[in-house]
Structures are given as C-alpha cells and as structure tokens.
Amino acid sequence: MSQQKTSRIPEFYKKTLEERLNIVAEYAGLTQEEVALLKNFGNLDPKIADSMIENVIGAMSYPFAVAVNFLINGKDYLVPMVIEEASVVAAASNAARVMRRDGGIKSIATQPVMIGQIQVLGVKDPWHKRMIILEHKDEIIQKANEVDPVLVKFGGGAKDVEARVVEGPRGPMIIVHLLVDVRDAMGANAVNTMAEKVAPMIERLTGGRVLLRIISNLADRRLVRSWVKVYKEDIGGEEVVDAIVDAWAFAAADPYRAATHNKGIMNGVIAVALATAQDHRAIEAGAHAYAARTGRYVPLSTWEKDQDGNLVGTLEMPMAVGIIGGATKVHPIAKVALKILGVKTATELAEVMGAVGLAQNFAALRALATEGIQKGHMRLHARNLAIMAGATGDLIDKVVEIMVSENKISFAYAQELVNKLSKEGKA
Ligand SMILES: CC(C)(COP(=O)([O-])OP(=O)([O-])OC[C@H]1O[C@@H](n2cnc3c(N)ncnc32)[C@H](O)[C@@H]1OP(=O)([O-])[O-])[C@@H](O)C(=O)NCCC(=O)NCCSC(=O)C[C@@](C)(O)CC(=O)[O-]
Ligand SMILES: NC(=O)C1=CN([C@@H]2O[C@H](COP(=O)(O)OP(=O)(O)OC[C@H]3O[C@@H](n4cnc5c(N)ncnc54)[C@H](OP(=O)(O)O)[C@@H]3O)[C@@H](O)[C@H]2O)C=CC1
C-alpha cells in the first residue's frame, strides 16, 4: 500500500539546504534537471539566501533591467527595474524621454517619518487617559530613543506622540502613535523595537493593557510628491492631452478603474523596489491604503491641462523605502542597483520612485488613450509567447513578426507558427 504524502515535516528548518531540497524533490517527483535549476543560485550566495528567509531550497532569478532617459530634479538617473511583465521598462523609458524639459520630473519627499502603533485596551476613561499620555509625551519620546542611539546620532529617532480614542467592535481603545524619523531605513524594525520599549510606560500611565505594538504601513507622514509638465507638441498635440485627462477622470470617478490606474503606477514603483530589495508589500499596502484614505478609493495621481494646453501630472503617495537595513545591504544585486541609481539617501530613493511611478502612469494612459495598450504591450509580450512556444534564435523574431503583422498574438498561434516554421526550416 502506498503511503500518503504529508506536508507535516517537523524541524524541516533545522535541516541543511541540501537535505531540504532532497525531501522536496522526492515529495514532488522533481527531475534531476529541475533540482539543478533550483540549485542554481545565480548571483546570490547560497549561504546568504539561506540566511535571508527560512526553509530555503533554491533561488529564482528575475530579469534585471534599466530604464533610461530619467531626469529628476535636474539630475540624470539610470533606473534599475526588476519585473516579470513585458513592456513596463520600455514604457518607463518612453515616458521619461518626453519628461526631460525644464529640469525633468520634480519630486520631493517629506521627512522619513514612520508611525508605530500601540493599542491600549481596558481603559475605563479613555478620553482622560489620552490627555495623560500627551502630558507625558517627552518622557515617552526619551524612553523610545534610548533603544536606538545610532538613529538618534544621525538626526532621527522618535519625534512626537499622538493619541486617539478609536471605537472598535469590542469597545473603545486608545491608539497611541509614536512618530519616528527613521532616516535612511525603511524603519519597521526600528519602530517596532521602540513601540515595544514604551509599552510598559503607556500601561503605567493609562492603567490599561497594551496589546499590539507595530508599525503602520499607512505611512502618511512619509510621502513623496512628484509632478511634471509634458509639452503638447511632444506627445501628439492637445487632442492627446485631452484624451489623457479624460482617462484620468475615469479613474477619479470609478474605483474599478482607479485600481487599474494605480496598478500602472505600481508597475514602476515595485520594479524599482524589487531591484533595490525593498519591502514591496509595505509599499503596496501603503499605496492602496492612502488611495482609500477618505473612504473612497481614488487614483494616486492627477492629470490636467494647463492654460497653454500642456499636460501636467502630479502624484502623491507614501514611500517607505530604505538604503540601510532590511535586505538592501544583504543582497549583492540590491547594492549594485543602488550604485547604478547613485542615490545618497532613502529620501532621494523615494523621490526617484515617485517620479518613476508618475512616468509609468503617463506611459500607460497615453497608450490607452491613443492606440490602446495592446499594440505596444503585446508586441513585447509576443516575444515571451514565441519563446514559451519553443522558438529559439532567429525563429523568435520571425514568429513575433507574423503574430504582430496579423494582429493575432496568442500562445496557440505562436505554437502553430513554431511548428510550421521549424518544419519548413528542416525541409
Ligand atoms: C511599448 C511602447 C514603449 C512602445 O512605444 P512606441 O512609441 O511604439 O515606441 P518607439 O519605437 O517610438 O520608441 C519610443 C521610446 O520607447 C522606448 N522603447 C520602445 N521600444 C522599446 C523596447 N523594445 N525596449 C526598450 N525601450 C523601448 C525607448 O525609450 C524609445 O525611445 P528611443 O530609445 O528610440 O529614443 C509604448 O507603446 C508604451 O509606452 N506603452 C505602454 C505600455 C505599458 O504601460 N505597459 C505596462 C503593462 S500594461 C499594465 O500593466 C498597466 C495598465 C495599462 O493596465 C495600467 C492602466 O490601465 O493604467
Ligand atoms: N509591517 C511591516 O512593514 C514590517 C516590516 N518588517 C521588516 O523590517 C525591515 C526594515 O526595518 P528597518 O528598521 O528599516 O531595518 P533595520 O533594523 O535592519 O535597519 C534600521 C537600523 O539601521 C541602523 N542605521 C544605521 N545607519 C542608519 C541611517 N543612516 N538611517 C537609519 N538607520 C540607520 C539603525 O540603528 P542600529 O544600528 O542600532 O540598528 C536602525 O535602527 C524590513 O526587512 C521589513 O520587511 C518587519 C516587521 C513589520
């Protein structure tokens, strides 16, 4: 009788990488080639990979690209991007090309202030205790700063305390916000450590019970604001400007469209985040929570026509990124990405990422509002399909050419063409 496979594997994490891989290979019936693929760590040292996350059995590579043409705050940038989707890098470069006038895209980030939340339960007089917390603000800040002298030395650290009474489904809670300037870090570890440190003091002050002590990813004190003017003659005239503004108006009015509009922005933001090994989940969470902060989900950008008929765009969103800490200084390629970018501070990185998000949004809207997204996007995607269908060498371009010229871009057609052209080649 064959034994049922089980995913319950006690102390899997204590085994060596090799042992874990063998277990998985046997479990999933992996071939030797598949095992060899997983074992190919590429530019990541297996020891580093094994220390970054748990239960590691291999590594996976993504393409690393560079978007060109970016001029931000008068400075040129080559922008590293890691992404699995065709046409994003081309679109970013395409947009940046028409955003180089007047010093390029403007982008300013606020101070890198993150919020640590402390949830206080079981307080009978929460409004009164809120005042007591605020009365002791300076002591709370001092206590928080004791845990991170390095951050304080660099001009960061806890700067302010806020307190709210929040009505929840299980009654009122006091929610304390510790505002921490995290300088060049993303800041979650730094802020969480501080929130845990001050919790006993908050309990003493309120007589309540502290439950959660954790950073908020709605980083609305750490915003990037980017804006740009695109001259009408550079993008096909006022008709195109109007079409882009109309496309934005659709997103401003309809959350179904706003989600896709913002996805277009995140195409750029997350690609840079991946290249520089940021916590991209934190950035995504912050972006969408910010887009919904009024209770209605809206686009993170605006597009208008100015008095001269030119297109002006703005973007405002949280941007919690670091160049110290997290994986940024652990992953060797993230270090190379930061070197290519040439950013000196986390604030500068945030400014670049805001500008890339705005440019990416423009590229998609322009394509959508003129020729449609499929023409440019599918032309580039057609290469993926041709390769997936087994095309190699010159055959890739031949298959792409036929699919594009016949406007018939699908995996099935790619397969049909590969089969047909390969047979013809052999004949
Ligand atoms: C695809 C393009 C750029 C073609 O655009 P085009 O005008 O046909 O290209 P072109 O041949 O005239 O070249 C213009 C520039 O584009 C760049 N470029 C051009 N081709 C390449 C290439 N192969 N590789 C790298 N860069 C390329 C390059 O910078 C080039 O300048 P040059 O170097 O020649 O001076 C254009 O159609 C475009 O910007 N499309 C938008 C594509 C897009 O947004 N893709 C994202 C995926 S769709 C999505 O996920 C989001 C979405 C759309 O749903 C969001 C939303 O709904 O809002
Ligand atoms: N909800 C979320 O978003 C959560 C995210 N995380 C994770 O937290 C990690 C990020 O935390 P983060 O605090 O950035 O990482 P680190 O703790 O690795 O780095 C921050 C620390 O680096 C030191 N440091 C040295 N130089 C500087 C400088 N110039 N500016 C700022 N700090 C400096 C500081 O002190 P010192 O030298 O004393 O350490 C600081 O506390 C990510 O891996 C993220 O995924 C974790 C929990 C929740």
From TrEMBL:
Q: Name one Pfam family in it.
A: HMG-CoA_red
Q: What InterPro entries is this protein classified in?
A: HMG_CoA_Rdtase, HMG_CoA_Rdtase_bac-typ, HMG_CoA_Rdtase_cat_sf, HMG_CoA_Rdtase_CS, HMG_CoA_Rdtase_NAD(P)-bd_sf, HMG_CoA_Rdtase_sub-bd_dom_sf
Molecular functions per Gene Ontology: hydroxymethylglutaryl-CoA reductase (NADPH) activity
* Keywords, ordered alphabetically: Oxidoreductase
**GO terms of biological process kind:** coenzyme A metabolic process
Which residues span the membrane?
A: none
PANTHER family under this entry? 3-HYDROXY-3-METHYLGLUTARYL-COENZYME A REDUCTASE
The similarity annotation says: Belongs to the HMG-CoA reductase family.
Identification of the protein by name = 3-hydroxy-3-methylglutaryl coenzyme A reductase
Instruction: Give the originating organism.
Output: Thermofilum adornatum
